[in-house]
Amino acid sequence: MKFSVIIPLGFHRQSALECVRGWVSKQNLPGEEFELVCLLPTADPDGLRGPIQALLRPHDQLTLCEPAHDMALCALGAAQARGEFLFFTESHVWPEADVLQASMAVFREHPDWAAFSCRTLPVVPNRLARMEADMYERDIDQAMNHHPWRKILDQCFVTRRAAYVEAGGIDAALGHYAEWVLAARYFDCGLKIGYAPHIELKHLYSGDVGVLREFIESFIEGEIRYFAGANGVDGTISSEMPPEWVTRGDWDSGFAAMVVKCMGRSAMAQPAWLAMPGWWREFLHWGIVAACGIGWSIRKARLRTAYRRALLSAASMAGSRARLSDCFEKFIVAYIHLHRLKEISAHLPALKDIPCAQGGATVRDLGQQRRASGFHFPEIHRSTELRWSRPAAVVEISVPAGSSGIAVLCAPKRRGLNRRRPMFFINEEPVPAGRVSFSGHRALIALEGAPAGVLRLAWVCRPLFAPRDSRRLGLPIVGISVEAAA
What we know:
Blueprint: E1 3-8, H1 16-25, E2 34-41, H2 49-55, E3 61-65, H3 70-80, E4 85-89, E5 93-95, H4 99-109, E6 113-123, H5 127-145, E7 156-160, H6 161-166, H7 178-188, E8 192-204, H8 209-228, H9 243-246, H10 253-269, H11 279-292, H12 295-318, H13 321-351, E9 357-358, E10 360-362, H14 363-368, E11 372-375, E12 379-381, E13 384-399, E14 403-410, H15 417-420, E15 423-426, E16 429-430, E17 436-439, E18 442-446, E19 453-460, E20 476-484
Parallel strand pairs: 1-2, 1-4, 2-3, 6-8, 9-13
Antiparallel strand pairs: 4-7, 5-8, 6-7, 10-20, 11-13, 12-13, 13-19, 13-20, 14-18, 14-20, 15-16, 15-19, 17-18
């Protein structure tokens, strides 16, 4: 048997019968060359079992499963499929007559392809469905034609069974995010995924905000669960870390309280800093985080999402297409941000046990560990990877016994560290000026009398404002390293 067509029937949008009928009765490929593997949640709220069974042929499979999520059903279907090739699709997607024949031809023409994704044509019953389809089609075009590895489109993904097994299969615990993880695993295994846009299926978009929110929630829950676990530390997919995750340390109320303490001490030592633009806003920011943690940001995000939802409702009733598209996309962005914050909030307590950077911290460490607060998103400047801090920041560092100092290396900018003169703190205690030496864009902090173990290094400096940049900037950190004693 050549093909196993895997159809999860959890989210069928009243199209399950049309989907199954399209595979059973409309394919040009001889019937004995492919099987349908249909997975139906045991609850079967829409009574699909009888009608689906009536459409299937003797060698097709219909399995009742406890899981209701499409990704879990797909994983189970792949495990019981018998075909040489696995064709993953959805129950609100239905095929053209030549889909399987054309898929066979693609594998003959591209023997180096381990898998490929097809193309879906949108079916849009209402205005919001049109907006939803437009959004997804832009994302699909970016993924299929430009992204280096995000080539799996689970609406219509065809793979050699051996390649699927080699890549580890679908991780059902990750919800809809499992699609991205599987694509990254194919890439890491050196398994090439192609794109065959001439093979077309029709895809029904619901235009239902509730359905879309359900998809987003599943994707974000899996995304944050992935990065909160050991799998998220390294690998190809680390390049797709969401900004909320990279900056999650900024919501640590304990670290925020440390930053407030350091800022207060720096102001006592240099009162002129109090008059600098942005200083009090920075102090207030950290004060709110120290008092409320991530809760304040969640409340703001919830209000912003409600506002965007109200604008979307108004635009859907009376707005132009351009207005509706703008409101739709801004609502989606707001809802994604809100749900990421909520998911991160649930994981923050467990992340306190993540070990800090050993012997220093690279830009990558500052993005992958939680034990740092006060850093903007990583960026590249003149081929150098750096991460701007805020005017006040703190990071935990593991200092081995016998270490002589901590070196803070910054990217070359117009002003060197020796001109900016930040104040450094170790465990919230100011480092005397005599123990800090500046050399261009590098500062060396002597560890005289400081105990070995985990130390908190913090700094406070004058806020820096760059043209066309709304951020309040501190130091452009390239790396932090521990110097061994001579």
